[in-house]
Design brief:
Elements (H helix, E strand, L loop, with lengths): L5 H34 L11 E12 L4 E2 L5 E15 L2 E12 L2 E6 L2 E6 L4 E3 L3 E4 L5 H15 L12 E9 L3 E9 L7 E4 L5 E4 L4 E3 L7 E3 L3 H8 L3 H27 L1
Parallel strand pairs: 6-13, 7-14
Antiparallel strand pairs: 1-5, 1-10, 1-11, 2-3, 3-4, 3-9, 5-6, 8-9, 10-13, 10-14, 11-12
Helix pairs in contact: 1-4
């Protein structure tokens, strides 16, 4: 330890404590999320009880409320970030310049019926897909400029020709699996709506109710089935919390040791 400068020891101990606390917070959240999902039984839309339920099915957009994602994909929900490679301090990193969330609701269908899903306040357990701007075909670039960029920024599309750019998106595509855990209610829901199917056609359906976030319960949404979501979350979070606790303990030890030396 003697060869380490006092400032370096303080930085190291502070870093260990801060990173350890962040790791515990993140791991505990994932641990609770996994336990919550594992303890819930999947309900059928047609027989779902009022209250906290888990639904699984296929996503559809309300007619006139679909959105265009990267490479022209039609989606019911999309989170998109447009990032630029910029200098930050002594290093370079990707910094978000524009971002948007599109799709305040979509429709979930299972074998028994349909349900609205209101996305506001939801925790989105989605995988992100990243597209370097230069890797996109000319048609995909033009589609993004014409159909996507106007919805997320008023900036001139010519900015994308200056420097390195990339687009990151998380989506619920029309006709793909979706997982939803939240509060189910039949109140204040439209009795009949038109939905847009994966082939671009519209279809009139009668949702049984809506899934949403309420103060007593979270809203968890994912772009995959429950078993795939559990794999994505992982099951090593207790071990991560133990490692993080060790980091915090070592950081505190270094800090106390240095203060003891100063006082002796």
């Amino acid at each position: 330890m003697a060869h380490l400068h006092k400032d370096n020891i303080l930085k190291l101990s502070s870093g260990l404590i801060i990173v350890g606390l962040f790791m515990i917070r993140h791991a505990y959240r994932k641990y609770r999320l996994r336990r919550l999902i594992e303890d819930m039984a999947t309900s059928k839309v047609a027989s779902a009880a009022q209250g906290f339920v888990e639904l699984q099915g296929t996503a559809y957009a309300l007619a006139g409320n679909s959105h265009t994602a990267m490479r022209g994909r039609k989606v019911a929900y999309v989170e998109i970030e447009v990032q630029k490679w910029l200098k930050s301090g002594k290093n370079h990193r990707w910094i978000t310049q524009f971002s948007a969330t599109l799709g305040d609701r979509f429709v979930l269908r299972d074998a028994s019926g349909y349900a609205h899903v209101l996305t506001k306040g939801g925790e989105m357990e989605f995988n992100a897909t990243t597209y370097p701007w230069e890797s996109l075909a000319i048609d995909d670039q033009n589609d993004f400029i014409q159909n996507v960029m106007p919805k997320i920024t008023k900036a001139n599309p010519m900015v994308l020709s200056d420097g390195r750019w990339r687009m990151s998106e998380r989506i619920v595509a029309i006709g793909t699996p979706v997982y939803a855990l939240g509060t189910f209610s039949t109140r204040s829901m439209e009795p009949e709506v038109d939905i847009e199917t994966e082939d671009g056609k519209t279809q009139k359906v009668a949702p049984s109710g809506g899934l949403m976030k309420r103060s007593a319960h979270p809203l968890i949404l994912s772009d995959c089935r429950q078993e795939d979501l559990l794999k994505r979350i992982g099951d090593w979070h207790v071990a991560k919390m133990i490692i993080a606790a060790g980091m915090i303990a070592f950081g505190i030890y270094l800090l106390v040791h240095e203060l003891h030396i100063d006082n002796s």
